[in-house]
Amino acid sequence: MEVKRDILWRVYISFLGITLLSLLVLGRAFYIQKFQGKYWRSMSDSLHQRFIPLAAERGTIYSEDGQMLSTSIPTFDIYMDFNADGLREKKGKRFYENLDSFAISLSNYFGDKTWQEYKKQLLFAYKNDERHYPLKKKLSFDDYKVFREFPLARLGRNKSGVIVEVNTKRLTPFKLLANRTIGLSREFIASNGKTKKQNVGLERSYDSVLNGHDGQRLVRYIAGGTAIPVEGSETDPVNGKDIFTTLDVNIQDITETALMKMMLQCKGPYGTAIVMETQTGKIKAMANLGQQKDGSYWEDDNYALRATEPGSTIKLATLLSVLEKGTSSLGDVVEIGSAGKAQVGNKIVTDAERSPRPILTVQGCFAHSSNIGMSKLALKAFGQKPAEYKEYLHRFHLDVRSPIDLTDVPKPMMAPLDQKGSSEGNLLWMSFGYGIQVSPLHTLTLYNTIANDGKMVKPYLVNSIQKDGIVIKQFQPTVLDERICKTSVVNDARASMRMVVTEGTARKVFAGMPFAIAGKTGTAHVSDGKIKYDDAVYQATFVGYFPADKPQYTCIVVIRTRPHDPIHFGGLLAAPVFREIAIRIYSMYVEKKNPSLYAAVKDSNAYFYAGMAKDIKTVFNSMSVSYTDSVAQNTWANVYAADYKPVMKTNEIRQRVMPNVRGMGLKDAVYLLENMGVKISAKGKGKIISQSVAPGSLLAKGITVMLELS
Length: 710
Prior knowledge:
alpha+beta, Penicillin-binding protein 2a (Domain 2), 6-stranded antiparallel β-sheet, 33 strands, 34% helix
């Protein structure tokens, strides 16, 4: 019994010792966590280091004249560390003293919550010891400057607990203008949780140039999670280079505005328009407007590169082919008939519009866009060997990807011309624009070649790559083919395109033009993806160049129509857009380059001014100048010379209609246009001599008007 008692006593003593030791360990752990946690966490922070990235600034994309088209601006995310020493010392005295004034400042400036709501949320986060509380996201630099002066925030990070994370946001200052061509550069979180980039347009094509290289910095963490740089461990980031494009903001705005007006009228699913400098191949404007769910239009896809059946604009390739081969000449006659349809080879071919005469010359077939006539010419030239027609299309670069400096450019497609039983039919369809798919840019490049006397130049969008204002790489015009056909064939083609405008399918729309135009209409019946021919969807096109006698710009306009839209012809939809673009570009650029072409004798006594009538009267009265007053009341007025005497006339202003601001000072024009909701971009000094939106044009929402001053 004594042995048993002795064993039990020892067991009890051991158990009691273990229990006391466990209680001591638990108590010590509780004490460390509750009362010494901050100290040991800071010790932990001070014992580790890591590299943090230093982001490089992405380069800026500029227009040809140096205006920013796409740039990166900083945004600021504001967090609060409520465990910061400065907020916790003296039982949170500093926090509680500034809480009300901080909440009031936040509420007054941002206006999204009452100050009581801000106070409640801040207090709750403080009591829960939140170390990364999101206060504000994506503040602009101006907002961040104001925030830094708020109570508490102005005390600095250690005392306020404010943490600032700087990010960059890619912006296009001109918003809609060439938005899809310039492209996007944005980050998104992929399904695997990693951050990835999604770029399109120039942002994608020149991503490696714009992106630069990130640097890195070794930091050591100390108490409160503050990162201290380790000296000598930093690798500086290499900022991205800048891209200077060939785009002209004024021409882009002219093109975008003209296309937008027609799209809002016809309500089609999309439209595109491109303007190219004839001799160089520089793309001066590329507009792409797609219809959104709410009926508005936005630059949502690059329709200029989308390969579709072009319709009658391909007849230029057919004309060049048969003239170059020599099977037909411009004055040869072709029997079209008067029924609007005819048997050609083994197919029945139909003309979209009846021929004005049953017999047309080759030039007349092109000018009046006769499918019957062009298919007969193709059959005569290539009926024995249809594959030979494809050799000409290859010579015209219509079977290869466009060499424009963009990525993901689609390749043209065409029906086979070397298969028994189908080659003749395919030849006939291809001769007037079916069985072949090319992009509007391909078509434009071919027409530009004829405007450029047969020399094919590469279309391109980037003039130079620069770093800190120093040119790293300069791009020059590139000749793809010195001559795609004989000079006589080029001259015949130019004469035929001129006839389209003077006598053919575009005669009515270009009547009364102050300068010569040459081009071609096109109306294609669409079968594309889910759309079938039975849906009666059309693609209306006009492509041409101006001035016709000395071409400086080549332009194409393509508009996709709604199903069964009665107004679907190229001469009714696309040609009016081309006309507006041509007139405005001519008045701003071509006319000034060649004033002798249309110059009249200048009257040294002529003048034209504009402004508020009462201001003009004040000036005349103070100078004792007599004038004829045709203004009934104090409103906007114009002043011009008549019989060597100033005459004042009312300048009629209508809501949502572009007024005539020529002759005004910039101050008056800004006051007038901004009150109409119009954005303004001005260049030069003095009086306004030109405006990018013509007087009387309907003003689209958010439109930007370019004003040039003398």
